[in-house]
Amino acid sequence: MLEVANVSKKFGGLVAVDGVDFEIDRGEIVGLIGPNGAGKTTLFNTITGVLDPEEGSEITFNGEDLLTLDTHEIARSGVLRTFQIVRVFGEMTVLENAAAGALFGTDASVSQENAQRRGREALAFVGLEDKADMEARNLPIAQQKQLELARTVASDPDLVLLDEIASGLTPGEIEALSNTIRRLRDDRDISVFWIEHIMDAIMGTADRIIVLKSGRKIAEGTPEAIRNNEAVTEAYLGADNS
Amino acid sequence: MNTDTLPGTRKLALVAAVFVLAPIPIAGSGYGVGVLTRVLLFALFALALNIVFGHNDQLFLFMGGLGGIGAYTTALVADTVGVTAWLALPVAALVCGIIGLSVSWISARRRFTVILISILTLNLQLVFAEAFIGARDLTGGSTGFPYELFSISGIAGAVGIPTKVVLYYVILAFLMAAMVLYIWLINSKYGMAFEAIREDEAAAESIGIDVVRYKTIAGFVAGVIIGIAGTLLAREATYITPSIFTFLAVDVIALVVLIVGGIRRTYGPIVGAVVVEAIEAFLSNYAADWRAAIFGALLIVLFLYFRSGVIVTIRDLLEAYDLVSSGGSGGGGTPAETEAE
Ligand SMILES: Nc1ncnc2c1ncn2[C@@H]1O[C@H](COP(=O)(O)OP(=O)(O)OP(=O)(O)O)[C@@H](O)[C@H]1O
Ligand SMILES: [Mg+2]
User: Fold this and answer.
1) What is the pTM of this model?
2) Which of A36, A75, B32, B75 lies 20 to 30 A from B19 at CA?
């Protein structure tokens, strides 16, 4: 479904992403881990068209070349994302945020009633339905991240990219979130590409994990294999990481 | 949000009724009708600014110039093609719409900040102002020419009311049409996109909103309204000169009207225009020499204490003294929601 080949991104002299290859198939939950500054968010930004990667990079989604599309077109083709630093529409209500996802996330024209209905459904999916009429900025940050997830779900995507969506959650909430993410795949047929620092959350949920360090992919495999991978352990011990 | 009927139809009808009746007590006074007409005209300019700046963060500071383009184009098309101004006006409005669209398109493509857009449009304002004076063959230069299009005097004669009053009603019809358009727009998918873009452009793009497209649409709609308002402004003056369309004569007033009335509020442009024109009229009657200075000082006060608009401030005051019951989200802060109840 998503094919990423030889993707690099430089900021001046700094190579933030360095020749990364991988694929994500339908029905997969793929984790992306790595120390701070490894290039995880930058990789998301190249996939979603926020940043243009270097010459020679290739990113296709269902055969379509994403590098020729603008950010909003990539969203409409079914690749939606959440942000590491939360970006809800603070002055809108929680429901309006989710409805906006339904209204603009597809090429099909969606009526406002329909968008509201799908927004409500998406809020229920992440467990925010009783907050529907609140202004989004009044939600705690951790719940704003769930709202971002609901906003992507409302547009009925094929693939969602989640950037540290579990940060700030209690262990109980992390468990609930992991369930939600599994239901994305199982009930909604949505693939997930998930950046996370909280190892318990991602190790227990992902089918496969990709490890980035200094822009390079240093390992890829099942959570079990990644846990026992020496290069990975070293990357985490070597990089002073919390 | 209801898409079947326009929200707040009754409130709009009430406002329309007040303006329909307003000239009756002062029908004899050409001056009074003139003041009322200016209220409508600057409400129209401020409404355009509300769309493009209030809802889209694109600060158009060439409303005077663009209005002038509208006015001169209407006259020139009517004259050279030999059609009535009623047919020439849509052409002029379209021309202004395309100018607004182009400015917005370029600014959005190049991701101009609000400051850059205001500098760009202020420059255009200066260019247009020079052109109005320079293109003497077309515009009559700084002496201008009489502007009595739209055969309103004919209607006035037939109905038996003064030309100025007929013109007032014509302008009122345009303002109400613009209000209907505004309320529809803001409650539609466009309004939702505008709000998302204004709050967070990156988030808006990430959910599939074509930011360039929506900003361009806002620029077009505002351009059309400004072109019409400019034409009507010249018609009200009955004589067109470049001095009608300067930055100080149009843009400053429209901006003040919008801020005083309350940015992003449905009735902000109308309320602001009433307040500002009342102050203007009062000052030119009782303190003509000090008019500009006092007006300037008042503006500073208004900006300092009524930044979210007089409607909000007065309602807050009334609530603070328990004169009215607090209605929902009446708190301070920004008036994000357009009130269309
Ligand atoms: N817009 C930018 N301009 C310049 N440098 C950048 C930019 N964005 C990221 N970087 C740099 O690129 C590198 C990778 O950053 P990135 O945000 O992708 O890391 P990350 O893996 O997401 O880290 P974290 O876990 O802390 O979120 C860092 O060194 C960062 O400072
Ligand atoms: Mg990151």
Assistant:
1) 0.89
2) B75
